[in-house]
């Protein structure tokens, strides 16, 4: 789904960058998800801030996708020569071959997608056996609270972390590393089936 104007501004704020730099990226590094020499796909790449971080880890290739053309335009303004950015719905990753990606990264974008289960299925399809899916998501209850406060327009029935873990398992993923921080879940899952 498209971000509301309010959430678009919030997700592109200095505060959001601070959280990414001091919380999200350090957890990602601690989980040791393979990036160096890998073909990496980032779902919900936004303005490309995560791309800068991931490119610093020397992937073989990096592709970022986002549903919002405005976000992709901002990502392309970063002029990251080693990155490709595309406007694309994550529920249909048809541009990517089956079993052609080593690592998929989703930094807190899955809860915006009503068809999030289809996104997980598509991640399973495009990842190689042994490939990695890194997902971080807020718990559904915190999304409901944010919705009351900010009226960002999140889906009426946000995903819960328990549903996410169950869906990962049903699509052939084994969670190798996980962490719970306040109302957020961080998962490094490997495609094993």
Topology:
Elements: H1 5-11, H2 14-31, E1 39-43, H3 49-55, E2 61-66, H4 69-77, E3 83-87, E4 101-107, H5 116-126, E5 127-138, H6 140-150, H7 161-170, E6 173-181, E7 184-191
Parallel strand pairs: 1-2, 1-4, 2-3, 4-5
Antiparallel strand pairs: 5-7, 6-7
Written account of the structure:
The longest helix is centred in the first third of the chain and has 18 residues, at 14-31. The protein has a single domain (5-191), classed as Vaccinia Virus protein VP39 (Rossmann fold), CATH 3.40.50.150. The protein has helices at residues 5-11, 14-31, 49-55, 69-77, 116-126, 140-150, 161-170, and strands at residues 39-43, 61-66, 83-87, 101-107, 127-138, 173-181, 184-191. The chain is built from 7 helices and 7 strands; from the N terminus they run ααβαβαββαβααββ. Helix 5 links the parallel strand 4 and strand 5. Helix content is 38%, strand content 27%. It has a 7-stranded mixed beta sheet, sandwiched between helices. It is of the alpha/beta class.
Key traits:
193 residues; Rossmann fold; 7-stranded mixed β-sheet; 7 helices; 7 strands; globular
Number of strands: 7
Round the mean pLDDT to the nearest integer and report it: 88
Distance separating the two termini: 29 Å
The first-level CATH class is given as Alpha Beta
**Biggest sheet architecture:** 7 strands, mixed
State the strand order across the main sheet.
3-2-1-4-5-7-6
What string, H for helix and E for strand, traces the elements in order? Answer: HHEHEHEEHEHHEE
Helix- and strand-based class? alpha/beta
Flag low-confidence runs: none
The CATH topology is given as Rossmann fold
The Rg value, from CA coordinates, equals 15 Å
User: Which band does the percent of strand residues land in?
Assistant: 25-35%
Shape: globular
The name of the CATH superfamily reads Vaccinia Virus protein VP39
Total domain units: 1
Q: Count every helix, treating DSSP H or I runs of 4 or more residues as helices.
A: 7
Q: Can you name the CATH architecture?
A: 3-Layer(aba) Sandwich
Helix content: 25-40%
């Amino acid at each position: 789904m498209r971000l509301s104007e309010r959430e678009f501004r919030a997700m592109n704020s200095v505060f959001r960058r601070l959280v990414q730099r001091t919380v999200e990226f350090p957890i990602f590094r601690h989980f040791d998800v393979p990036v160096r020499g890998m073909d990496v796909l980032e779902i919900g790449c936004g303005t490309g801030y995560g791309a800068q971080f991931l490119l610093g880890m020397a992937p073989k290739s990096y592709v970022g996708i986002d549903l919002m053309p405005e976000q992709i335009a901002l990502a392309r303004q970063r002029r990251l020569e080693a990155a490709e950015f595309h406007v694309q719905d994550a529920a249909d990753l048809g541009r990517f071959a089956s079993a052609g990606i080593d690592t998929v990264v989703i930094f807190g974008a899955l809860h915006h997608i009503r068809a999030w289960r289809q996104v997980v299925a598509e991640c399973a399809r495009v990842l190689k056996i042994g490939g990695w899916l890194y997902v971080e998501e807020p718990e559904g209850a915190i999304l409901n609270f944010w919705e009351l406060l900010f009226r960002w327009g999140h889906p009426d029935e946000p995903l819960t972390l328990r549903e996410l873990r169950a869906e990962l398992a049903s699509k052939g993923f084994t969670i190798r590393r996980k962490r719970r921080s306040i109302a957020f879940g961080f998962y490094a899952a490997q495609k094993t089936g």
